[in-house]
């Protein structure tokens, strides 16, 4: 119900934005409601995405084990993933909204907008992305801690796998693939959501701008700026690698006999 109300308000804001920039006042609470619904219902949204991502890594024993581990506790995995989803989505939202808005302003100015106007939009977008990036770093730290805690609680499981013939390298690969599942799923969902929300915001604000005197409304095309996208992808790769440093040590530093003997 919360998600449906949010999406409805967001769509209404986009429609109102075709005739008035005040459509953003309707779209904004719609975005908040729909995003809150996504966070609360992450355990329903993220597991199918994790399952789909798991198929990309093949059908080897290590890949299947990592995929099943990522889905063993869907609520915990979803909580870890949704934190990164929010960070990625917010960065992409401001990037897409700002770049799309500059495109409309340039078109409305006949091909060249005043430098001070584009500079203002670029500066605001950069500041907001920087602030959101700090939140993303905090979310990434939370993912690292949660993954390390999960591996620590499964020491005996990893010891049993090693006793059954899995090498330390394969155990480390299992942990790495688990982290990659979470991070890659968060990246995909975050980019999609950020692009959608960014476009909706730009459309709600600038849909009423007339590019030509006889135009009734403007369709704002979403523009994904390459630099923020590359930065987001690179940051998620770093998170995936950093998130496995401590867990892999936990999983392999204790001998199988000692780990199985622990209560």
From TrEMBL:
Transmembrane segments: 27-50, 81-107, 127-152, 173-199, 219-246
Keyword set, alphabetical order: Cell membrane, Membrane, Transmembrane, Transmembrane helix
Limits of the ABC3 transporter permease C-terminal domain: 130-256
Membrane topology listed for this record: Multi-pass membrane protein
An annotated GO cellular component: plasma membrane protein complex
Gene Ontology BP, a term: lipoprotein localization to outer membrane
Compartments where found: Cell membrane
Family: Belongs to the ABC-4 integral membrane protein family. LolC/E subfamily.
Name by which UniProt lists this protein: FtsX-like permease family protein
Protein's organism: Microbacterium ginsengisoli
Lineage: Bacteria, Bacillati, Actinomycetota, Actinomycetes, Micrococcales
């Amino acid at each position: 119900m919360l998600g449906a109300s949010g999406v409805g308000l967001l769509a209404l804001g986009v429609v109102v934005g075709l005739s008035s920039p005040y459509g953003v006042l309707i779209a904004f609470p719609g975005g908040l409601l729909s995003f809150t619904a996504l966070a609360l219902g992450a355990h329903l949204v993220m597991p199918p995405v994790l399952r789909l991502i798991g198929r990309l890594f093949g059908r080897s024993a290590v890949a299947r084990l990592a995929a099943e581990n990522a889905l063993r506790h869907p609520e915990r995995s979803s909580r870890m993933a949704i934190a990164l989803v929010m960070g990625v989505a917010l960065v992409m939202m401001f990037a897409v909204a700002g770049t799309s808005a500059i495109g409309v302003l340039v078109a409305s100015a006949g091909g060249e907008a005043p430098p001070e106007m584009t500079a203002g939009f670029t500066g605001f977008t950069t500041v907001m992305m920087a602030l959101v990036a700090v939140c993303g770093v905090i979310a990434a730290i939370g993912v690292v801690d949660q993954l390390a805690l999960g591996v620590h609680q499964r020491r005996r499981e990893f010891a049993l796998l090693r006793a059954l013939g899995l090498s330390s390298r394969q155990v480390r690969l299992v942990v790495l693939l688990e982290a990659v599942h979470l991070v890659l799923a968060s990246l995909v969902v975050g980019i999609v959501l950020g692009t959608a929300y960014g476009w909706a915001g730009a459309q709600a604000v600038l849909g009423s701008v007339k590019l030509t005197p006889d135009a009734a409304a403007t369709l704002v095309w979403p523009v994904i700026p390459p630099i923020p996208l590359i930065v987001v992808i690179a940051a998620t790769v770093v998170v995936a690698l950093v998130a496995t440093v401590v867990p892999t040590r936990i999983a392999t530093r204790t001998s199988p006999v000692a780990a199985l003997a622990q209560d």
